[in-house]
């Protein structure tokens, strides 16, 4: 039986908007800088292999910070952590803009990544704690916006910046965004530290953060080279060993950095599996789509970004309706399966497209895909918290965000290798298969009671 919809308070909407602005900067930065790689190679006179570390170092720093999120929120409170992370990201952006060599830029990108690594999990933690179950769907729609729009807006904005201004503006563009997020968040982000302060699990940190970073690096190397080189193999083995070591440690520790006992909860475990699989499909396909337009349709990075805009439109349409339907009906599993079906339907046209397929047909497919991604992601986020107490929201968010990161890196690597050894149709069919596989995990999700 549907429930009466509870109105979102203006303060909660303002909070969600401000948090989205700050968190979006980290994702936009990734896509903007990827467009600037060629320009940076020429500016510094460095080989491409060196300049690629500008993006790799940032990604690894972001990943390494994820495990600290839950502990930092409990120890210092969301207000302090939010402002600290924004300030660190701002400092890193300014330093990148004044970098005098490729080496300096890479070091400053690490600082930028360390500052921004906790911003996306913080967005979810704060909104989950503030919203309550009856508003979670609509409020978490704001989480979808940066995730879906950054891959579309970033290349367009990056192309405009690199084409019209100095490369340093690829980093300086973050400054007004972060300053605005800092100013607007005063009085809105108010969470203090927990009453019981958990000590930092140093041994767990020494195992988990490096393990994640090394594993992601191994997957990235595998995708770039197209085979299991010595570097990729070493990274994968070392990362897995460290993560297994953390697993043993966490189950023997009273207050681990990330409590793996959360996975005893059936609903949370289903969400975790879903996020992992869907992360591979989402980020893997977003790796393929710009390349498809650039290599098959001879589009520039700027044109490719514009051609991907329909997916952002579909995602925005989804955010308007899906969150509201989810809050009214609680039909988590049903909405998720419908979203996965739409995501598959929106990806298949790229798998069967020929050189003469009209761009308009692909644009319609992207609108459908964007709406499907929103309808898939949103229930997976809200279901994460369905059966957990608020005291475990931070740990649950950290855990699922880590799995999404690993799944995304794995999916991107696999699709990159398939593309190098095969073709775009083969890679897109694989993306379709990964998306369809997520339905198996979705079947384990409960439909929330709305009585």
Count of alpha and pi helical runs: 20
What's the pLDDT, averaged over the residues? 83
Spatial gap, N to C terminus: 6 Å
Integer-rounded radius of gyration: 21 Å
DSSP strand (E) fraction? under 5%
- How many separate structural domains? 3
Strand runs, count: 0
Looking at how many chains there are and whether they match, the oligomeric state comes to single chain
Main sheet overview: none
Write down the overall geometry.
Answer: globular
Protein name: DHA2 family efflux MFS transporter permease subunit
GO molecular function: transmembrane transporter activity
Organism: Kribbella speibonae
Domain Major facilitator superfamily (MFS) profile: 15-450
Give the arrangement of secondary structure elements.
Blueprint: H1 10-35, H2 37-44, H3 48-51, H4 53-65, H5 68-76, H6 78-97, H7 102-116, H8 119-131, H9 136-164, H10 169-172, H11 174-184, H12 202-225, H13 230-252, H14 266-295, H15 301-307, H16 309-329, H17 332-352, H18 359-384, H19 393-421, H20 424-442
Helix pairs in contact: 1-8, 1-9, 1-11, 4-7, 4-12, 5-6, 5-19, 6-7, 6-11, 8-9, 8-19, 9-15, 9-16, 9-18, 12-13, 12-19, 14-15, 14-18, 14-19, 14-20, 16-18, 17-18, 17-20, 19-20
Highlighted features:
451 residues, mainly alpha, Growth Hormone, Chain: A, globular, membrane
